[in-house]
Write a structure and sequence with these properties.
The protein has 417 residues and is mainly α. It has 2 domains: 51 residues, no CATH class; 265 residues, Receptor-associated Protein. A 3-stranded antiparallel beta sheet has the order 2-1-3.
Length: 417
């Protein structure tokens, strides 16, 4: 069982903090709700740096929960921008949320906005209300809102947060656009190969069987694979689903996630694109947290949770320990050997001048430009490369199929004997 730390208001309206044991977060929420408590926040005590690890089952359930309750980043960007505008115009948070809820077309997110408005009407702060929806508002989002509430600059923080989310969404869109074409070509290639094995090879197999000739080994292998696919369609699909699910489960494990993330960022071209995208997100997140006045140790923990790459997360975790032991921030990140020199130089300068948030923002802009550059280069290179790969794969299968025909006279003679 996992331990979950909670903050609630009991049936008497008294604020209570404590911990509870449960198999999943949903189970913990159900237990507290059944006792008549109003949940302000709940989180696993095993999450984050220095707090141990969730079990594989808990990670799976948490992933399912986030998928089930999450909304698109585009929706969140629009919401944050609108909330910032309304709040800056003088509307209360409750009124702003009520107006946004009435106009929201996404039913799932509309329910979240109505719940936020109700909780604020009951006396909760905006950050406390948002903490109850971890699938929608991640720890970074909640921490920034909380920092804005404490400093009295919530409208400024919301404005910065909306800009940050727009930048992240834009970078994600560029990376997604660059990856979409190769994914489509690979999917199309797999479809063509499946069609060859399922429809074409069986026709040739019947013809070759009528000859009664000895077939080349590559052709025998192709026919054997074709027979397996045509006779075991359901089993073949089941195998593919099982492989995909196994990869997903493997990725949920700490070792598996680290191996896959390390493999991806070391790929040629695509790895460069992913690294630049991660560094852009890292710099932008660090910048906005420093601007909002979040303490450096909390900033580093939040950055660790949002970079979404196990290799970089591990480096941030090591750097956080070193900073705790007395290292400078830039010096600690340099010792990890993961971060590029440009970022480290800007970080060191910012640390010396007390202007780290602005310089890290400059670093984020720099890496975003690198992402644009790699996307342009990738777009121009990937098309001919993928076409060559597809042609080679399909061409090889066709050659294997036609090998006996190249020697058809000999095959027919052999069959007559």
């Amino acid at each position: 069982m996992a331990n979950f730390q909670y903050t609630i208001k009991d049936v008497k309206g008294i604020r209570v903090e404590g911990s509870i044991k449960a198999n999943t977060m949903d189970e913990a929420i159900d237990k507290l709700s059944n006792e008549g408590a109003t949940i302000i926040s709940i989180k696993s005590m095993d999450e984050g740096a220095f707090k141990g690890n969730l079990s594989l089952f808990d990670k799976f359930m948490l992933a399912v929960y986030k998928i089930r309750t999450s909304v698109s980043l585009k929706t969140l960007v629009f919401f944050t921008r609108q909330l910032s505008t309304m709040f800056s115009a003088g509307l209360t948070i409750e009124k702003s949320l009520t107006n946004l809820a009435s106009e929201e077309k996404n039913k799932k997110f509309q329910k979240v906005l109505i719940k936020l408005s109700d909780d604020i009407r009951k006396g909760f702060s905006l950050s406390e209300a948002m903490e109850q929806h971890p699938g929608v508002f991640n720890p970074l989002y909640v921490s920034l809102v909380k920092a804005g509430e404490k400093s009295g600059t919530l409208h400024t923080v919301l404005d910065k947060l909306s800009e940050y989310l727009e930048k992240v969404e834009d970078t994600r869109r560029k990376v997604g656009s660059a990856m979409m074409y190769p994914v489509f070509i690979l999917a199309f290639t797999l479809l063509v190969v499946w069609g060859l094995f399922y429809f074409v090879i069986p026709m040739f197999s019947d013809v070759y069987a009528s000859f009664g000739a000895e077939l080349p080994i590559p052709t025998k292998i192709a026919i054997a694979v074709s027979n397996f696919i045509t006779n075991n369609v359901f089993f073949a699909v089941l195998i593919l689903v099982a492989i995909a699910f196994s990869i997903f489960i493997f990725y949920l494990s700490d070792k598996g996630r680290y191996m896959i993330d390390k493999f991806l960022i070391n790929l040629p071209v695509i790895g460069t694109l992913l690294r630049n995208s991660i560094m852009s997100k890292f710099s932008r997140t660090f910048s906005i947290l420093m601007f909002s006045g979040v303490p450096i140790m909390e900033t580093m923990e939040l950055v660790e949770n949002v970079v979404q790459n196990a290799v970089v997360e591990n480096a941030v975790r090591k750097a956080r320990i070193m900073v705790k032991e007395g290292y400078s921030v830039a010096g600690a990140f340099k010792k990890t050997g993961v971060f590029p020199s440009t970022l480290l130089q800007l970080m060191a300068t910012g640390e010396e001048t007390g202007d780290m948030d602005r310089l890290l923002g400059k670093a984020a802009d720099f890496f975003e430009k690198l992402v644009d550059s790699v996307v342009d280069r990738l777009t121009s290179l990937i098309e001919p490369i993928l076409i060559i790969i597809m042609a080679a794969l399909v061409g090889t299968i066709i050659v294997v199929i036609y090998l006996p025909i190249f020697n058809l006279g000999l095959a027919m003679t052999s069959g007559m004997k």
